[in-house]
Amino acid sequence: xxxxxxxxxxxxxxxxRRGIRLGDVLxxxxxxxxxxxxxxxxxxxxxxxxxxxWPAIQEFGLAFVWTEAWDPVQDSYGALTFVYGxxxxxxxxxxxxxxxSIAIALFLTEIxxxxxxxxxxxxxxxxxxxxxxxxxxxxxxxxxxxxRDTLEPWLQSFLGWIPLFSGxxxxxxxxxxxxxxxxxxxxxxxxxxxxxxxxxxxxLMDGAMALGSTRWEAIxxxxxxxxxxxxxxxxxxxxxxxxxxAIAVNQVxxxxxxxxxxxxxxxxxxxxxxxAQYQGATSQLQASSILYLGxxxxxxxxxxxxxxxxxxxxxxxxxxxx
Amino acid sequence: MTTIPGDDRYDITIRSAGLRRRRITEKAFAGLxxxxxxxxxxxxxxxxxxxxxxxxxxxxLDFFTKARPLFGESGGIADALVGSVLIVGMAMLMAxxxxxxxxxxxxxxxxxxxxxxxxxxxxVLNGVPAIVVGIFVFGLLVVGRGQSAIFGAFSLAVLMLPxxxxxxxxxxxIVPRSLREASLALxxxxxxxxxxxxxxxxxxxxxxxxxxAVARVAGETAPxxxxxxxxxxxxxxxxxxxxxxxxxxxFAFSESADPAEQAMGWAAAxxxxxxxxxxxxxxxxxxxxxxxxxxxx
Amino acid sequence: MKKALALTLALASVAAIAVVGGRAEAAPARSTxxxxxxxxxxxxxxxxxxxxxxxxxxxxxxxxxxxxxxxGIAGVTARTVDFGASDAPLSAQQLAxxxxxxxxxxxxxxxxxxxxxxxxxxxVHLNGQTLSRIYLGSITSWNDPAIKKLNPKLDLxxxxxxxxxxxxxSGTTFAYTAYLSAASPQFSSRVGNNTSVNFPTxxxxxxxxxxxxxxxxxxxxxxxxxxxxxxxxKLQFATIQNRAGRFTxxxxxxxxxxxxxxxxxxxxxxxxxxxxxxxxxxxLAYPISTFTYVILPTNSTKAAxxxxxxxxxxxxxxxxxxxxFFVPLPTSxxxxxxxxxxxxxxxx
Lengths: 322, 297, 348
Hints:
The complex is a heterotrimer of chains A (322), B (297) and C (348).
Chain A: H1 13-17, H2 21-60, E1 70-71, E2 76-77, H3 80-111, H4 114-129, H5 132-159, H6 174-199, H7 202-210, H8 215-244, H9 247-253, H10 270-277, H11 284-320
Antiparallel strand pairs in A: 1-2
Chain B: H1 12-15, H2 17-56, H3 61-65, H4 78-109, H5 112-127, H6 130-142, H7 149-174, H8 177-185, H9 190-218, H10 222-227, H11 246-254, H12 259-296
Helix pairs in contact in B: 2-12, 4-7, 4-9, 4-11, 5-7, 6-7, 7-9, 8-9, 9-12, 11-12
Chain C: H1 2-26, E1 33-39, H2 44-58, E2 60-66, H3 69-77, E3 83-86, H4 92-98, E4 101-112, E5 114-115, E6 125-126, H5 128-136, H6 145-150, E7 162-166, H7 171-183, H8 185-190, E8 203-205, H9 207-217, E9 221-223, E10 225-226, H10 227-232, E11 236-237, E12 239-241, E13 247-248, H11 252-258, E14 289-297, E15 299-300, H12 303-314, H13 331-341, E16 345-346
Helix pairs in contact in C: 5-7, 12-13
């Protein structure tokens, strides 16, 4: 028993007789159980959504994704209107939020003195803390009317020849929804970019500037090159967040049934349509079509998040090699 | 930066037009960065300002003690407050133990491949949109049984699990191995080591993760829409039935035509934001104290 | 510091529990039962009046959440609630899916057409044809010739019309699209009649409250909603032309005349369709009137309370209607309601 040396982790014979080892086994057991439960939960979510959507999947097949239809009278459904709405509002939000987030991150890490950076960083984080339903409330009562009365007429005055900015200004539509999503994405993306920029090796930056580049050129050449994959991941994470937002979008997007090329016109997104119609589906086929929308939403959110995480992991691995 | 004092005519760094242009570009982008930060702060001020401005006047004793009004009457958010507290409280009870156990498994027991696999599971769970969680819990639990606060809490717990688990796991990894080894060397069993040595050391980070997760789910509307939205306009603590909640109440008020209800929406939003902000500030305080403690060690 | 934090949290939770416990005690505890229902937003004003009265009369605590007729039908079908409310009667398929439900008319009111058009000197006249064309998108501004023809005395601006519709599954949509389908074969073939339809243009909003809100905030907007919401929110509603050629309002007289053509004995729900009443109904008949229904499972553990509630609603509850522009049920309809209610029995 003692011939191979003293093992500190092995309980002494008295302890063994008292069955203290049981504690270890039990504890590990419940830890394993919890982990199994978490995995099973994920499986159950996927299974539940897909199986509830199955009647619609069987009826419409994959063509559902690119069919533009939503007619409960004819019991004919298609997801294109909502996929279009989700993608367009999220992309616009991305286009607006990404440069802003990068600029904010740069400001906080490179330009602002520490005393100023800390409170401003806190304020940007607080933007993330605003619940989406509150942003939606603000969107309906403040942003929407402003968009209809000020922003959209202004955009139309010099961009009105582009179909995107044609049509009648409206307080509910793609544009207010995209703006609300922008506000939601900025804190996420800028926080990640801040981390990235703060972690850039100082000697690379100093070396660039010693060679005569200005601060901005050093940032552009060194920092962005270093952080590019991370920024891509941050952008994708923001995109994933935008895809999944249902409530705030539902409050301002206008619940339209078909695609309209104008950004001013009412539209609808996957999450928003589910929130609006799931509880009141008039037929089993409509109910499972709405679940089919949920399955599509789940897939695009999953894919976006997985790609983002993959970039982050590869990025971390290559950084560790530094 | 590199300002060379002296007569500009002899300043070789300034004479070249290219450098002048580069300096101007530099200032322009710095200006853009400042402007962007100002925009972000401006938006925050705008939203918070509107909420405070429109909501503050509604706050009254009645607002905090009366239940939500029926058609055409006046009321308050007392029932929604009670419901939210109960549901978030239950969600915490459901999610925190499981999350910590999962994190412990990942950092203490699982091999590297299993740990990575679980990390992927948690990240995927984190990426499931709240509305999908809502229809999942609806299909699984509510159909045939009816809504209840317990189901609502469960749906929030599903949202909290990956957040708390990942935050806990990250903090557990930071706890130095030497601490564990010292404890084991003293004859303490593995599980006692984890519970009495590792966890307390990581408690600051765990608390931060919990507080942030609670702040997130306190404002979630979508899952509650399907699990706890059909509730009486009266204060109730019966968790076997649906209870009104603050986010769902705000959602209803926001779409109302009645200016009185819209005003209540602003005030309820103010209460919710204050709650969430306080939690975020608490989280930051705990995190910075933790950082100071570990830096000082 | 940590101890202080923990102590504060503990005290706060004790205080919170005390407050909550105290408040919960303050609620009346003599209820014999609770009924949970959901569904149409249309009758919500009236049901709001019923809830405290039924509580006083029988001690039954009723919870009602206005989520739309479709949600009411789905809720009672999935048995997630004890009763559902809908302005739309159940289709044959829905009745089959409900597995033993009865549909009982319990209120009668009208769908008003409120609009937001500031600065116009008088009430706008509309009819089924123009409304169909507005909701189909072929009439886009208020001074369209078709509208001007109906309103020769009005000074109509060229503001764009924004038709607002219900984005959730709605019995009001059902009644309204039934009327438009009767008035316009083009609407009938292109959009059709259901609680949820594919409107080709306009803005969607949730609930009667939501559509009223959009109209209130959007100049030029117009929608279809229960009269009580228009009045509550001080919105001007249009007068609608009936088959007698007169422009009528969704008031008590208009609704009463609209139901005057019911058979002496009502035997099925299809006889309760009262949109677009014939000329014989009366000169003041309002063409977009509708019954609204409660859906009960025939086999329920709460059958006794349900029967008390619905019987009270159909009899004494009706007197709360007129101030909200709900007309008391005609006798033949009450008789039908009693017969259907008798089918609700306590089961396993």
